[in-house]
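User: Structure please.
Assistant: Input sequence and predicted structure:
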Amino acid sequence: MKSAGENLKEKFGYKKPVLWLSPLGGWTKPDDVPLDVRIHQHEEVLKAGLTHPGGLDPDSTVMAIWPAPMVYAGPTEVQFHAKSRRSAGASYFVVGRDPAGMKGSELAVASPDDDLYNGDHGRYVLQMSPGLNGMKMLSFVKVMYDISDDTMKVPDASRMDDFISISGSKMRALARQGAMPCPANNIPNDLLEANCVPKGFMVPDGWNIVIDYYQNIDSGNYVPWSQPLVEPKYDDTHTHYHGTFGKTDFKLTHKSYDSFWHDVPLYHNRYGDKKIINFIVEIPMYVSAKMEVSKEVKGNPIMQDVNKDGSPRYYTYGAPFFNYGLVPQTWEDPDVKSAAGIGGDNDPLDVIELGSEQLIMGSISACRVIGSLELIDEGETDFKILCIHEGDKDYDSIHDIDSLEAVKPGTIDRLVHWLKMYKTSDGKAVNTLASDEPYSVNYSLEIIEDCHRRWKDLCHGSGSLFDDEFWLDGAACRGRRQ
């Protein structure tokens, strides 16, 4: 970036170009440096300013997190990053070697450990891209450390003996070893053996942050990617909340019902049609925070789901392209086994609403059942009821899976892919479905009725297990128990 700024002055005549330090804030692989570590290191680079060869001038540098996920797509991703930043106002794009990619397939006959993409493919493809619309590139080859002036720069071919390579893997190894600055004017050929880094490689406080991370990499105390803290999109007419959306203290309750789970009727009373259920929205379309009705907490509020370590859970594979929620007064009983011998997931039935507009959290909508999918999720049966809500523009045209595909072709293939893959970005295995073909409307209605009966049995039960595990004191459930 420093070289790019100098080029803009020397070659293009700019007086004071503004550099955009644009760290990626979306999902990254678990073995990548977490977002908070990178941000703190960048802050030290700006704090050092021009007093250190590894610093950047804070008066002419803007740092802004770019919230896109890292998808490791090599040259394709380079084009995305250039063009998206052009849309945000950048006039130049700094592009170098080694676009983020992956290793070759383990099934490859020859060289399975080779990188999938050549290190120069990103900038080559970008140079040939027809969609830059006037955006210019500042293209660099590999940057090395110049021992003559203690600066990272593009090497001078006439004096290559003055340059040493400090690769990413070498940097990580040095950080794990806690390498300290090398003696002045005495930079060894083997940095790893000497366990030192050249003084101009990185600002000292920034290097200390990198060391701290790599020496405590398994502590779990880092923020892997940005998690937006915003006001929730919720039904403010019928619900209220306290706490902070995106935090574990968030709770959303209904103003009229004691419990979302127990007291909202299963079917929408206006219609008298068992194909029309009440759909309670837990997660609006395009929201990545994993929200769900709590079975255990008093009032069964909608709350932030958590990971096993207690941290807030987010969809990391990609925000859902559908509205997600539950069917009230239903329960998937773990003691009821499928044909494969797999029990229910101990939750209310899930609903995936496949309309075209975002619904709001806590809202209750009349939703026509059009089918269902049977997800096998970590050894449990987890039915997903598919529906279309009455306010959708295609409501009158969609009555089953065939009409859904006629109106919105490819929706089921896209949904099946998402359901199978959405946990893989968290390092978990690919999910399976009992069938990639959705069940019929009639069979889906039988599933709903069966899970409604199971809910009634749960409310009637007197066993201490469920008294301790669930909050069952909603008016409808309490009345059945009495």
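Residues 239-481 form a domain with the Inorganic Pyrophosphatase fold (CATH 3.90.80.10).
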